[in-house]
Amino acid sequence: MKIMITGAAGFIGSQLAYDLWKKKTELVLVDNFSYGSLDNLTFPEHDFTDEVLHLDIRDREGIGSLLMAGDVDYIYHLAGIAPLPDCQTDPQEAVSVNVGGTVNILENARRYGVRKVIFASTNAMYENAEVFPTAETGFGLPSLIYPNTKYAAERFCQSYCDTYGMNVTCLRFANVYGPHIDCLRKQPPFVGYMIRELYYGRTPVFHSDGSQKRDYVYVQDLIDLALLAQEGNGFDCVNVCSNHSYSVNELYGIAQEIMGKQIGAEYASSDNYWKKYPQLYEGAYAIRPEVLEKEVTKYTLCSYGHAKEKYNWEPKISIYEGLRRSIEYEVSLFEKMGKGKE
Questions:
Q1: How far apart are CA 160 and CA 297, in angstroms?
Q2: What CA–CA distance (Å, rounded) separates 248 from 254?
Q3: Predicted local distance difference test score (pLDDT) of residue 60
Q4: What is the CB neighbour count within 10 angstroms for residue 339?
């Protein structure tokens, strides 16, 4: 079996590659390193650093050249622009990568006979949901740029299935966490941010009052479902979630306990999250304050009923154990970096 992974140097892609490598799978790894990191590619038993092809998913000929032999069985298409503020501040690039890049993957998969594409989508498209836990159908359409790019990409996935008889499964990720989560970027995921601030003994700044809750799923649980998704024909969308919501304050409390540090958090208004992106407030039409407030304080809780019914999958790792593993890895990374490099 031969499998291509786009976004292979990212948090999820790198760990999927490692899992498949342990299963003796032949891999084609692709990343343009706009968000991926070399640090993600080093594992205890294997280093993928020299195996990842530096390639943009929008490169027609480049992607085609990897598939033209007709021997790639599956594509895990994980590459894309995920940080919500990055998509909101540069919508043209977000659409180009998240939608255009996906269409390029689909078109090349069609031409060269890939058996199935598994696409990394998001539960962010449930931002206007009113029913919880939220299932894969019956949700309100999204408003912000990032979830709309994923929603549009899903529609193209369905188009290719309907028009050409291809097989595509869209995995709608909840908030994914685990070892290798990005702690260093400008606006890291919440779990990465709180681990970093605790490690360096700094007071974290949380937005709103910290009571907002979201659905979190551990990365290995996600990978287990992603591998099962090789089964099945046609088009499908599947939630990858825990069906449990945890508040900012709850997660921070667990992290403090595990790390043995008690540092009180500060709380800022919801719009503080967006102040690093002044371009959203510029121009004739500024972003609406209520949109910013809703994004920061929104509640997410998703159902994995479809995944359980179709793949007999359910998450196994508890939030405490998942955070413990995440903290153990990130602390070891910070120690290697040295405290002067935060």
A1: 36
A2: 10
A3: 98
A4: 10
Residue 339: pLDDT band (50, 70, 90) is low
Which one, of 318, 328, 10, 102, lies nearest residue 94 by Cα? 102
What single-letter amino acid sits at 79? A
DSSP H/E element including 270: none
Using CA atoms, how far apart are residues 213 and 170, in angstroms rounded to an integer?
24
Polymer length of the chain: 342
Cα–Cα dist 322/342, whole Å? 24
* Range(s) within the chain of domains with CATH label 3.90.25.10: 190-211+247-299+322-341
The segment(s) of the chain belonging to CATH 3.40.50.720 are 2-178+216-244+300-318
Alpha-carbon distance of 213 to 132, in angstroms, equals 12
Question: CATH classification of 190-211+247-299+322-341, choosing from 3.90.25.10, 3.40.50.720, 3.90.950.20, 2.40.40.20?
Answer: 3.90.25.10
Q: Mind listing the pLDDT tens digit for each residue in 46-104?
A: 999 999 999 999 999 999 999 999 999 999 999 999 999 999 999 999 999 999 999 99
pTM of the model: 0.96
Fold for the domain defined by 2-178+216-244+300-318: Rossmann fold (3.40.50)
Buried b (16+ CB within 10 A) or exposed e, 230-242: beeeebbbbbbbb
Backbone angles phi, psi at 340, to 5 degrees: -85, 0
* Strand pairing report for 168-173 and 205-207: unpaired
